[in-house]
Specification:
Chain B: It comes from Danaus plexippus plexippus. Chain B: It is found in: Mitochondrion. The complex is a heterodimer. Chain A has helices spanning 2-7, 12-15, 17-25, 33-48, 59-62, 77-93, 238-247, 256-262, 266-303; strands spanning 104-110, 118-129, 136-143, 146-153, 159-166. The radius of gyration of chain A is 21 Å and the shape is globular. In chain A, β1 and β2 (118-129) form a beta hairpin. Chain A has a domain at 55-208: Roll (SH3 type barrels). Chain A contains 9 helices and 5 strands. Chain B is an alpha+beta fold. Chain B has helices at 78-86, 96-99, and strands spanning 8-12, 24-29, 32-40, 51-52, 56-60. Chain B has a 4-stranded antiparallel beta sheet, with no helix packed on it. Chain B is globular. Classes of the chains: A alpha+beta, B alpha+beta. Chain A binds chain B through residues 109, 111-115, 119, 121, 136, 143-144, 146-153, 156, 158, 179, and chain B through 40, 45, 47-54, 56, 72-74, 77-81, 102-105. β4 of chain A pairs antiparallel with β4 (51-52) of chain B, so a sheet runs across the interface.
Chain lengths: 304, 105
């Protein structure tokens, strides 16, 4: 790590040894909502003046799948490079918008089994995982009192359209507890209209706290320190509280090595973002132009 | 629906003995043995195939005709293909249950 830093062309980081190194540790590609807000707050005042922190680094939350798996077993620089090229090619074909866990999406795929040959599913994104071309996300909705989850590959060639209906984040980085929550918390109408955020506003964080159904649950939610659940204590017995205490790992947040193994170092990230930044930016700009044109034409068709 | 004991799958008619989507099963329901088709499963599914919060079965008779007249639960579209493949010219016609489905996902 330190060797790589000395070799790296970015000399600034050497000068500010410890503090910035610790910052590097927190440059996680696993976006945690609470943490990201903190990082953004820290970065904005710093970044505006000297701009020594790479501005492209903010992309790690918008495009998390561009960062490879930190596990050295699965690293292969050539494969990663080829995958990134393929991802950019796919992105030039279909608009994959910015979305987070907690965002409500509508996904249209071409489905050989469906009658109209297309299949649309609306739901809240409860999980996002995988790197590179293997990135996938899961949507959940309750249709006819039946909870339904569909998993999609982000770079699936059968995806025709991904539409963001409501762009927001939630308090946790996985919403798997919605499976055990009351059904009204993940019920969304199929013909939901997209809500448009004003230009340049930050992604809102929905602080809603869900209520869980009584036990049995699918997982031991009480041990996971969830912020988005309100009534978890009601369902616990004394035994569960004791075991939760015994199972706590409060030292893990001080485990720098663990953090390091979970994240991609800042030098590697700078390289990756330097490679894809221009194309992603171009795509963003062109999409914006397209959407402006589209909004211009939409009222005409309505009038006519 | 929920009177007495909940229905239970007691046999799966495939070689793996684990029920997958579209498999024919025997169900113990109200003290009787009935045939059924699995139309929704809790287990992890392939990409783009919906995963349900409960295991769902549509009861059929030996010819593949559903015993009921309506299905209130959404049906995965992939069942169209699966059931068509399982239907043979002289055997049971399983695609009849697709006709009474109210909604596909």
């Amino acid at each position: 790590m330190s060797l790589a830093m000395r070799k790296s062309p970015i000399e600034y980081f050497n000068a500010a040894k410890w503090i910035i190194r610790r910052d590097c540790r927190y440059l996680s590609n696993l976006p945690e909502v609470a943490e990201t807000t903190e990082v953004v707050e820290n970065k904005l005042p710093k970044g505006r003046k000297p701009r020594f922190l790479n501005p492209t680094l903010q992309y790690r939350h918008v495009y998390p799948e561009f960062l490879p798996d930190p596990n050295p077993k699965f690293r292969n620089s050539l494969r990663e490079k080829l995958e990134r090229a393929d991802m950019l090619k796919r992105r030039s074909q279909v608009d994959i918008p910015e979305f987070y866990v907690g965002t409500i999406l509508a996904v249209t795929i071409s489905d050989p089994h469906a009658q109209g040959k297309t299949n649309k599913f609306v739901g809240i994104c409860i999980e996002r995982k995988g790197c590179g071309l293997r990135a996938e996300f899961t949507l959940r909705n309750v249709i006819d009192h039946q909870g339904i989850e569909v998993r999609y590959d982000l770079y699936d060639p059968t995806i025709q359209n991904i539409q963001v209906l409501r762009l927001e984040k939630r308090l946790d980085d996985k919403l798997l507890y919605l499976r055990d929550a009351l059904p009204e918390y993940c019920t969304f109408p199929i013909d939901m209209d997209p809500e448009i955020l004003p230009e340049g506003s930050p992604v809102p964080v929905n602080t809603v706290q869900v209520k869980l159904k009584p036990r049995p649950w699918l997982e031991r939610w009480e041990r996971q320190e969830l912020k988005g659940v309100s009534n978890i204590e009601e369902h616990l017995k004394e035994k569960d509280r004791v075991r939760r205490e015994l199972r706590k790992t409060p030292w893990e947040k001080f485990d720098l090595m663990k953090d390091y193994r979970k994240t991609i170092p800042i030098e590697d990230q700078a390289e990756i973002w330097g490679e894809v930044y221009n194309q992603l930016q171009q795509m963003r700009v062109s999409r914006k132009k397209m959407s402006k044109q589209r909004t211009f034409t939409a009222p005409k068709t309505q009038l006519g | 629906m929920a009177e007495g004991k909940p229905p239970k799958v007691i046999c799966v008619y495939n070689k793996k003995r684990v029920g997958y989507i579209g498999d024919r099963v025997m169900v113990a329901i109200k003290g009787q043995k009935k045939k059924g088709i699995l139309v929704g499963l809790k287990q992890t599914q392939n990409v783009k195939v919906p995963k349900f919060d409960s295991n769902n079965v549509v009861l059929i008779d030996d010819n593949g005709t559903p015993l009921g007249t309506r299905i209130h639960v959404p049906i995965p579209t992939i069942l169209r293909t699966i059931l068509k493949e399982k239907t043979h010219a002289k055997g049971a016609d399983y695609t009849k249950l697709l006709g009474i489905a109210t909604r596909f996902v």
